[in-house]
DNA sequence: ACATTTTGTTCCACGCTGGCACAAAATGAC
DNA sequence: GTCATTTTGTGCCAGCGTGGAACAAAATGT
């Protein structure tokens, strides 16, 4: 009956079916009640009830009457009201805390990049709390927090625990969610960064509707996430998709395990820099030289593309995905040496399958990691 | 009220909760009502109703009163009544049709091995129908049929389609379930053989309670199956777990893709025979020579163990399983060269993780494939 | 004999669901 | 313009499965 025009400061308790309807709207956009009912498998009667509830909560609004070519009463389309709730997403790196606030449609409405004064757990938690408080002041106060970082996140009972994070120098398991939750008073989700990216890509990116879906995050390291049955694979210890130590032959940069011929030795940004013969951290130069056709740089990217093709083939063999999405700031080998990637697929896959593998290169921006964390928080609320 | 002592000839329609209780009994054995209620997440009241229904259907019986040390009324344990229903499982190879009939506890009560007169689709379907009719005569008439074979099984709409099976010489997709179902009048499930083995091992073998679970089937080829979230990974085209073309270095038998350094080149029985220098088909001699310490045979098994370690490492990296089970008639490298397997794990995994990987070698018999098919049929009934 | 503890069962209210009938809002035929 | 037709949205109601509460049952301990 009443329609609340203000954003919510707390996430309401939704029934299972309510969450389902919202999810359907998130995934496939505005729809009429009848189509929604079909898609989530409910009767029109039930859907009418739920729509009423969501309208009253202000999570959904009635859109324009859709003009149809056929006869009959025109359907009233239901739209998500994106500004109804906001979520804080954080990506932690070794030196910076990237924070975004997104709305219900995962659009970024606020953004921060705060340098880390130190890597101590206390410092990080304090900084997180401060940023959360800062971003809770305005009209887009978040209702939940998602945090992601490059590392293993274990589920230990109800707690989400960060396992010894090398780049943060945390030698012990850190129950990050249990520390940040009470400090901010908001529900907190912690996840691996590429897993978060994967969730966001599956829900809001072009990865919608592909299942299984495999997402790669290429950058300082290699990560991957897999969605099967609408859920992110978590594994026994939150360590799925760590496919970076496949040996592909050749000689490259020595990885932290002491290999000089594994995927890490060729695909990561530090490896490309090393193999291209530029100074550590000077990826831009390696890229420029490769584009100019300089032999050594081109070769570094070609070998990166071949190695990437190797692990893509492995994940195709393992997961049989409908789509493989390559993301991250270090995926330029896709443009520079696509034929090498294809060569690797031919090498590692059974012949007939190569053309059935769908690989995409969605738009990428580093803030997508933080956005992914926000989406993970959103997902946790919709699921539970 | 009434207890039917006879085996069922048709599977009853069970509610969702009823299937859940039965599943719990299958997985963890006899239990009291209260424990069952806790384990499946129902109230005692609801569980009492369901237990009554299952008792009336004759699927479950009340066992002895369990004597407890503590005070209070002793619980009445519920047991599965294994003879209440039977299932036909078939494993198809290039020359033989292996059939078993199992009861509800997956115990094999009948067994057949019928030579295939020819590999034509019609012949196979006719033979399947004949075997089904033969085994339906006795007191253990099956209520459903499961068929498995070494190949890809696609789900095309409601149909289960066998994709061009090389060893059967089927060049086209064959809708095997749609052919056998009407001919026998029973519900039919078709699956990959190692997937069927995996399902059975997860439900009835030592793989119970491990999740994710990865199962390898080593024999004429290599297959693997993965269970995540209680479900077998199916993938987009029923082709998950095909991890056999990883390149591990060295030189072995040339596989069908033209590689001489991939896992197939070392792990399959034909490869071991070739690499050991014995006649094709004479695996027994290779095994005997290796056990006697003959250098070339030992080397073949060592390289097989190393290659196996490589793919096990890959699946650990990909799926983060709690348990890896190695099955199949060609897994002797586990005994002959265990240190080579460990060396491969050290090579392909991150150091700290090697000791956390749990690898088991459950009892194996070739009839387990057919049993697995029967279990797949059972699972389909419980799920739907 | 009686309190205590734990299990199994019956009763009943609650919530969610879908079928049905009906209202609402458009088009098309006349 | 009126009326049949078509499709959408909603109110009503019976049905189903569920869990809480009370109670019966079967053991132990005092």
Task: Tell me about this structure.
The structure is a homodimer of 384-residue chains. Chain A is an alpha/beta fold. The first copy, chain A, has three domains: 16-83, Arc Repressor Mutant, subunit A (Orthogonal Bundle); 85-199 and 367-383, Nucleotidyltransferase, domain 5 (2-Layer Sandwich); 209-360, Nucleotidyltransferase, domain 5 (2-Layer Sandwich), CATH 3.30.420. The first copy, chain A, is 39% helix and 21% strand. In chain A, the strands form four sheets. Chain A has a five-stranded mixed β-sheet with strand order 6-5-4-7-10. Chains A and B meet through helix 10 of A and helix 10 of B. Chain A binds a DNA duplex (30 and 30 nucleotides) through helix 3.
What would a concise description of this structure say?
The structure is a homodimer of 384-residue chains. Chain A has 384 residues and is an alpha/beta fold. Helices cover 39% and strands 21% of the residues of chain A.
Would you tell me which CATH topology of the largest domain in chain A applies? Nucleotidyltransferase, domain 5
Structural class of chain A: alpha/beta
**Major interchain interface with per-chain residue totals:** A-B, 40 and 40 residues
CATH architectural type of the largest domain in chain A? 2-Layer Sandwich
Number of helices of chain A: 13
Strand segment count of chain A = 15
The quaternary organization reads as homodimer
- The coarse silhouette of chain A is globular
Low-confidence stretches of chain A: none
Give Rg of chain A in angstroms.
22 Å
Q: Element order, helices and strands of chain A? A: HEHHEEEEEHEEEHEHEEEHHHHEHHEH
| Spatial order of the strands forming the largest sheet of chain A | 6-5-4-7-10
Task: Please describe the biggest sheet of chain A, giving its number of strands, its sense, and whether it closes into a barrel.
Answer: 5 strands, mixed
CATH superfamily of the largest domain in chain A: ATPase, nucleotide binding domain
Compute the average pLDDT of chain A. 90
CATH level 1 name of the largest domain in chain A? Alpha Beta
Total discrete domains of chain A: 3
What is the helical fraction of chain A, as a range of percent?
Answer: 25-40%
Q: Report the β-strand fraction of chain A as a percent range.
A: 15-25%
What gap, in angstroms, lies between the N and C termini of chain A?
Answer: 26 Å
